[in-house]
Amino acid sequence: MGSEVGPPGAPPRLLRIGEAATLTGVSPGRIRHYQGLGLLQPTRSQSGYRYFGTIELLRLLQIDLLRSLGVSLTEIGTSLPGRLDGGALTGTLERHRATLQAERQRLDRLLAALDAALESEATSPETVTALLASANSTPQDSLGIFGRLSKPLSVETSRVYEQVLGGGWGLPVPSIFGRMLLPAAVTDLLEQLARADGYQELFRRIRVLALEILSLSSATPGRPSGARILARDWLRTHAAEPLPAPVQAALDRTLPRIRERDVLNQGFQLWAESISPPAAEVLRSLESEARTRGLVVLGVLLARPAHHRPSSTGRATHPK
Fold it and tell me: Which end of the chain is more exposed for a tag (fewer CB within 10 A), N or C?
């Protein structure tokens, strides 16, 4: 059926959705999706048909162009409010250009890593993985062998963790574990820790623990009892020598909110298993012991639930 005449004052010929799809190459389903998001406002006839005039056809072509450049529909919605807004569109394109520039740099790093892997005479799955993992991430979205972040760190915080975790502390963990995904709540935790006075003490203790675990795995392989002792010592130190108050407060605020703690703890235990069975036993024992004491645990990090924390009077808010 051909196009109908629009309402009084409209152009004499308007396009139905199928005709608009044919002229633009955008499927009718996609056009309906854009309309549902408020990006398009076609004219409706009394019979319910959608009709597109010049303005909406041009808008549809512009939406399709921006989508082909990789601009998100959310950005498009703010770029094309009502009639075309050149200032808003320019801002969107500038932001998108920065995104593309970062992606180009990432691809350049990947190409260089691939070339290095192909030219190497000692190529192995581990060396290739290490090259590609390092090339495919930045300090803002990766903690190296400790995992990648689903939500990037701020520039300032990423610099802190570059210094704190640089080089992976020499832990013999396969670099592919750097692809383990850490949820957005972990980024929030890391941001707060990096801003807390005394965070260096937390990571100093963790590094000492890592060295003790390595020593355990090499000196007493196959002795999980030694691993359990190490886990209990970690808890005793935590109780006898509390972390700096701002650091513990950051842990208390954020750790209980990480809904994925259980699966993350399993992931960290597998991560430790790649070092040695006793290393994994340390983390399993620590999780078990901490929970019996009513503590929230993530890897080796410990937090107190709200009812365990000191009140404003300095006393715990639960009976001892």
Answer: C
Residue 173: the pLDDT is 84
Q: Is the pTM of this model over 0.85?
A: no
Q: Are residues 305 and 261 in contact, defined by beta-carbon separation less than 8 angstroms?
A: no
Here the tokens at position 41 are 């406002």
Strand residue runs (E) in the chain = 15-16, 43-44, 50-52, 148-149, 181-182, 296-298, 301-303
Q: Kindly tell me the burial class for residue 122, based on how many C-beta atoms sit within 10 Å of its own C-beta (0-12, 13-18, 19 or more).
A: exposed
| pLDDT digit string, tens, across residues 17-29 | 888 898 888 899 9
3-state secondary structure of 195: helix
User: Do 181 and 304 reside in the same domain of the chain?
Assistant: yes
In terms of C-beta density within 10 A (0-12 exposed, 13-18 middle, 19 or more buried), how is residue 286 classed? buried
- Residue range(s) defining the domain that contains residue 102: 97-136
pLDDT in tens, 245-288: 999 999 999 999 999 999 999 999 999 999 888 899 999 999 99
Rounded to whole angstroms, how far apart are CA atoms 73 and 58?
16
Same-domain check for residues 46 and 114: no
Residue 218 sits in the same domain as residue 273: yes
3-state secondary structure of 249: helix
- pLDDT of amino acid 5: 45
Place of tokens 């569109």: 89
Which residues, including other chains, have CB under 8 Å from residue 33's CB and lie 6 or more apart? none
Indicate whether 217 and 183 sit together in one domain: yes
The answer to whether residue 201 scores a pLDDT higher than 70 is yes
* 80 and 159 together in one domain: no
Let me know: does 224 contact 286? Beta carbons within 8 Å: no
How many domains is the chain partitioned into structurally?
3
pLDDT of residue 317: 45
Q: Average pLDDT, stretch 45-51? A: 80
